[in-house]
Amino acid sequence: MRNSECGMKKTAILYITENGLKLAVRLRSVFPDAEIVRYDPGLVPSLWADHAALVFIMASGIVVRTIAPMLKDKRTDPAVVVLDEAGRFAVSLVSGHLGGANDLARKFAGFLGGEAVITTASDVNHLPSIDLWAREHDLEIEEWELLPQIGTRLVNNGALRVYEEQGAGGRGQGSEIELPDEFLRVAGPRFADVIISNRKNAYGETSACTVAGDDCSIDTCRVKGQLYLRPGNLVVGIGCNSGTSQDELEDAVRSTLDSHNLAFLSVGRIATIDIKGSEPGLRAFARKYSLPLHVFRNDELNRVEGIEKSDAVFKATGAHAVAEPAALLAAGTDRLLVPKQKKGNVTVAVALIAVRSTECGVRSEGEKKLQQKGKIYIVGTGPGSLEHITPAARDAIKRSDVIVGYGTYLDLIKELLTDKEVVSTGMTQEVDRCRKAISIAREGKTVAIISGGDPGVYAMAGLVFEVLKSAESEEQHHGAELETPNSELRTLNYPSVEVIPGISALNASASRLGAPLMHDFACISLSDRLTPWDVIEKRLEAAASADFVIVLYNPRSKGRAGHINRAREIILKHRKPTTAVGIVKGAMRTHETIIVTDLERMQVTDVDMQTTVLIGNSKTFVWNNLMITPRGYERKLKI
Q1: Which helix (H) or strand (E) holds 311?
Q2: Looking at the predicted structure, is the pLDDT value of residue 387 above 90?
Q3: How many other CB atoms are there within 10 angstroms of residue 479's CB atom?
Q4: Which positions ≥6 away from 111 have C-beta within 8 Å?
Q5: DSSP-based three-state secondary structure for 546
Q6: Parallel, antiparallel, or unpaired: how do β-strands 402-406 and 514-515 relate?
């Protein structure tokens, strides 16, 4: 499980010819700990077992045939680098990431003025290595067989969605791991490619989907092939009778964790009383999984408060209890995740680590707190009523320190904003809103920018990215003027951004009208505040002539009352006056109104900025006061 060693074993450099030896000597001048060995196939197995890296200065075919019988697992195989005798190429052959062969090849190439040959997909595409990132953050990969699939997903999509469970699944009590830019934090496990959790099943006991209800199973309503990464943040306190076997101890620990939905791979250390520290079964158990074994004197255990005392345990050990106080002391906390469980000759208790251990010591969470980039959630709240806000949107708001938004949209969700810092702006102050949110996020805070409907449809998402891009370009320009090194530019604290979708006005309105968007449709805003009106007219003309169903956003305001009439005139050039029209004002809100009419009889007085207008295509029909646009199923239905 957890690596119990600190530092790297030596590197062996193997050569065949005199030129190979000369190159090996050159390499050792910058890698003084390297051991130079004349190549002998019979020596390689022992070198393989005893060294962290093997460097072969010879033909790659010789190396492949030599090491093939010894290859087992990328987690345990040493790094293997192959160089030609001239030092022109340094080929990372085996264990590129975890073993460090890629970095070693780059170092050799840099020193020799040659070229590093790296073939791992993430490096070639300048993406983070999942396994290396996990190791750097002391996260155990649970199902290694899933890693290629997840890695392929990262390469194909350029990003991975990561869910980190807080409390039970975090890095420690109250902390959150920093993610690379390509790892996008999501609000729930269903949406994630990678789940960071110490819970065996991040969905707990729930089998029904929280979005679709009991008729939808979590097994089907989630991302397929989810990779669990396990933080080593659990301490298992153990009390046992003398002579208890390793198998019984392991069974007791595993059954306790299983019954409380905790992952065995998240056990970071075990703890007991000092007189049990020499128990052969306990030591063998700790050694089998490379788990640090913490032992405490009876007087240390007795100072822990709030523990149930046992006369029998006190008589045998001098301590009033063992498993529970040992777990609490080793975890640096005062709260148990799992109180003591008696399993035959073994007593088990579990606590969540509040003091994180490194491979080479112990540090407090506060002392080693990561400098975190801020986070921006761009949250779509849909129509605004609480029942139509997604769980992901609720969770993003809950996790945010500051909420930024247009006052009207904030009023619709005021029940979710209790105890939140709220920044409210006017309707036309979108740019100021974005800049304020970005400024707050760059201080390290998590900010939710509230957007009605869906943030990616005529809303805030694009503007946030445009403002960020503009800020980055401006700072890079100033950096160039000041001859700022590129490395300094890369350290600028840009917040990560995650878009949380919501029900858009076109979705909400279409659902109220029946099924008007069953076939191809075009969505056009009639607001010329940001888009010239002649461009809007061209788009109306094109959509109407192509027989798209047309959705009109921002159809009429006091300042542009005539735009909807002009749009109607353009569409009537290509559509019959009897073409179905749906007008939905305040979709899914308290004062919602729905009108189904046609192009000839539609009244523009029924239209305002809170209205969405849907104009059917040549096939759209009205039935029971509903708009339906057929998709072509009539042939299958033999209508």
Answers
A1: helix 311-317
A2: no
A3: 15
A4: 27, 30
A5: coil
A6: unpaired
